[in-house]
């Protein structure tokens, strides 16, 4: 586990990785919304890794990761993928499952990661568009932000477990350790934060209505961030959790019971009913709050995953010439090629 004071020099070793790398440099790139990306190095398994055929997406020895692909967050997705592979001891055993409404973004990913073992799953926004209520930040209202609600129906039925990761994060430890989190019979696992003010995620209308507020009766309900989750797909399907989330969203359209996008329905269904993950796997909030995106420090303790949740994204702050100190930890994974021919890496 990396020590906090060693993080920056560790991350600046851009060519070093858990499984090793073969080649890199600028090669196949694709312009996407005036963005071009260089090809990432190829990473190889260490000798102890179990062999898995490249076309096998159902092996219980593989690590399956789901991520959404969005045009505005594509640069973040590239960095997240690179950091995951670089720090993995078995990068060739990782299977990425990309959820997107734009198939062209998958092609862009493959140009930068031509050896990536991945699948594209098309997300049609129409079923969820009518369920979205406006929130405090426009980016939270994107239909793709709700794709995590439908993972068990979007992904192959042969998958029993998936690790869901947001696009505004980087890993600095082996993702296999996170994926191996014991679920203990729960539908999902995530880092919980029980010192947070849980009441602020719901409106006075919700708390003043006993038939609604009693939803949390008998549950040790704590806040958790949905950007890092280990999900038991079998238990989710059997428990009908997608339907439960949708029912809360339908109620929200009739009477406003929460303010913050896709998070509150997850809290309503799962808070107090999840397996816990060590906080080192989601050092979240580095993007600041949802209004101003001010700079924030890390939480106390070890770090395995840094997450720029909140309004401020590291690539945007770097481009504006006003980065926060911790954005320097994200920069080594940036695959963007500058218009003047320079490379961000």
UniProtKB/TrEMBL annotation:
Signal peptide: 1-22
UniProt cross-references to SUPFAM superfamilies, sorted A to Z: Nucleotide-diphospho-sugar transferases
EC class name: transferase
Molecular functions per Gene Ontology: glycosyltransferase activity
Keyword tRNA-binding included in the entry's annotation: no
Membrane topology designation: Single-pass type II membrane protein
EC number(s) on file: 2.4.1.-
Alphabetical list of InterPro entries matching this protein: Glyco_trans_8, Glycosyltrans_8_dom-fam, Nucleotide-diphossugar_trans
Keywords (A to Z) from UniProt: Glycosyltransferase, Signal, Signal-anchor, Transferase, Transmembrane
Cell location: Membrane
Cited Pfam families: Glyco_transf_8
Domain of life from the UniProt record: Eukaryota
GO-annotated cellular components: Golgi apparatus; membrane
The protein's annotated pathway: Glycan metabolism; pectin biosynthesis
Family (UniProt): Belongs to the glycosyltransferase 8 family.
Listed name of the protein: Hexosyltransferase
Organism for this UniProt entry: Linum tenue
